[in-house]
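About this split. The held-out portion is used to measure sequence recovery: a designer receives only the structure tokens and must propose an amino acid at every position. Recovery is the fraction of positions where the proposal matches the reference. Here is one held-out target exactly as it appears in the evaluation file.
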């Protein structure tokens, strides 16, 4: 049996042009997203009633991590990148079908823009341009299990970092971008197994490269390029 042909219904625009720096999970950083439907699905009737929901599920494709074949085990960064566990016990992008699942906050449904309907969301964990395959409303009575166990992750996102962002560098970003950027840095973009206070990291956000170090639980932004 041949694999199904997925229809890309939309693409999301985010401040992230590269994979490094994208939050590890949806909702842990307050980063904005703009979902624009592909023309065959650009129909206001298709989102009628969606504005009544505070959150939505996005089913999407890891289009930058697609591979031929698959491996039954992967090495999650949460375990230091040294221990293998089953792929279906992780949210690794290297999966048989390369599908991602994210719950995001729906800020508003715009019907008055040239490419409307457009969905404005927060908490996205995707590179800009990521293809969206489906959208469904989030239902708290069915989708939330506060007492669920978290396996090897411990059930939490890990500690948040303090961010030292010099005002003159932060001013390089529009006021609407600053909160999301600080939120993404506080969520610690580094691989879990890296903890070198001398290492300089770089992540793109809003078209600019943010250079930083991390020491003693604090992100120190040292430069903004671009």
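Reference sequence for scoring:
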């Amino acid at each position: 049996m041949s694999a199904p042909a997925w229809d890309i219904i939309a693409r999301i625009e985010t401040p992230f042009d590269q994979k490094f720096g994208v939050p590890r999970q949806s909702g842990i950083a307050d980063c904005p997203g703009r979902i624009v439907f592909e023309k065959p699905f650009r129909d206001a009737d298709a989102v009628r009633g969606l504005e009544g929901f505070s959150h939505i599920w996005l089913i999407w494709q890891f289009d930058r991590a697609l591979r031929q074949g698959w491996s039954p085990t992967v090495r999650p960064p949460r375990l230091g990148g040294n221990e293998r566990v089953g792929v279906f016990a992780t949210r690794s992008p290297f999966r048989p079908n390369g599908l991602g699942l994210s719950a995001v906050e729906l800020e508003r449904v715009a019907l008055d823009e040239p490419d409307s309907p457009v969905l404005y969301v927060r908490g996205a964990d995707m590179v800009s341009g990521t293809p969206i395959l489906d959208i469904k409303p989030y239902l708290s009575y069915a989708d939330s299990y506060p007492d669920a166990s978290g396996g090897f992750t411990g059930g939490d996102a890990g500690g948040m970092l303090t961010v030292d962002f010099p005002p003159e560098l932060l001013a390089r970003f529009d006021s609407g971008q600053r909160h999301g950027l600080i939120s993404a840095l506080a969520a610690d973009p580094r691989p879990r197994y890296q903890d070198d206070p001398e290492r300089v990291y770089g992540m793109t956000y809003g078209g600019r490269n943010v250079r930083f170090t991390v020491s003693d639980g604090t992100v120190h932004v040292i430069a903004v390029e671009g």
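Annotator remark: The mean pLDDT is 92.
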